[in-house]
Write a structure and sequence with these properties.
Elements: H1 3-16, E1 25-26, E2 29-32, H2 36-39, E3 53-55, E4 61-64, E5 69-71, H3 74-77, H4 81-85, H5 99-112, E6 117-122, H6 127-134, H7 136-145, H8 147-169, E7 176-180, E8 184-185, E9 188-189, H9 193-213, E10 217-221, H10 230-236, E11 240-244, H11 250-257, E12 262-266, H12 269-274, H13 277-293, E13 297-300, H14 310-322
Parallel strand pairs: 1-13, 2-6, 6-7, 7-10, 10-11, 11-12, 12-13
Antiparallel strand pairs: 3-4, 4-5, 8-9
Helix pairs in contact: 6-7, 7-8, 8-9, 9-10, 13-14
Amino acid sequence: MGLESAAKTSRFRKVLDLERTDRLSMGDFAFVEYRPDVYHLGEGEPLPQKGQVGRTRDGKRVVTRDGGVWAIDAKEKYRTPEDVLNVDLAPFAAERVDDAMLGKMAELVERSLARGFVVPLHYGTMVTRCTIEFGWEPFLMAAALDPSRFAKIVDALGEASLAVVTGWARTEGVELIAIHDDIAGTRGLILSPDYLRQYCLPWYKRLFQIAHQYGRKVLFISDGNYLAFLDDLLIAEPDGFYIESSSMDPREFMLRAGRDKLFLVKTSNQNIDVGTPDQVRAELARLAELHRDYPGMMMYRGGGEPLPGNAEAFARYYQELLVYS
């Protein structure tokens, strides 16, 4: 581990301990994924140009530059809700948490140490895995038309996720596990709170509990505005949350979640992509103010196509406002 990586690791560990650091942590951790070809979109895939749709190298997934991903054959396999409800669950069966899995995970951690503090990310948990495998419309229609039958699919994906999270929890050197499930869009939840409460929340509890059983912390990640489900998630006791500033006000979210939580904040896409340097500065100033009260904060820059001058403004104001020594 080099000096830069050691500094990142030391700083990030202080964040995990809710200690205020010499800056608002950015770029100090490195996500690592187990079998992303199954639970996400694959490793090292070339992203298409803005506004275009591309395919992964293995031919299994369709991707967009802004993070969209779904199975390439979803439209052919799942034309109706009934196609989804009748799916063969065998391909989604949970893996064995054995020496092969644990060895692969240990190797992934070891290979990533030079990039910073290693954080395993499980991406396709339940809701997100459904969007990847079935496509948005068939998935949502099936869940709405026959919730109890669809729950069997949720349970299968929950079991599969539990195996992966158990593996990461048992892997030496892991201290924080990120569990990703996109339960919301910019305007709110994509499934009703009652549905999430009945069918998904029990699985979130089990996932968080197994991580805690092995002494690991958990960061729950969802895009969008999931404030309407925050109180339910708090009951499941994750150690931290992801905040997409384009969808939720970080101050409101943190106030409701509490000062004892970790917060990964993605800055506003709008400010960096279509805003002004003054708007970029104002947002970072607000984060600096929040960091005084919430030491468990970390951040990364949102946006994908910054207007000329905005990326430079972000870097300049980060140094000016969020690096304290």
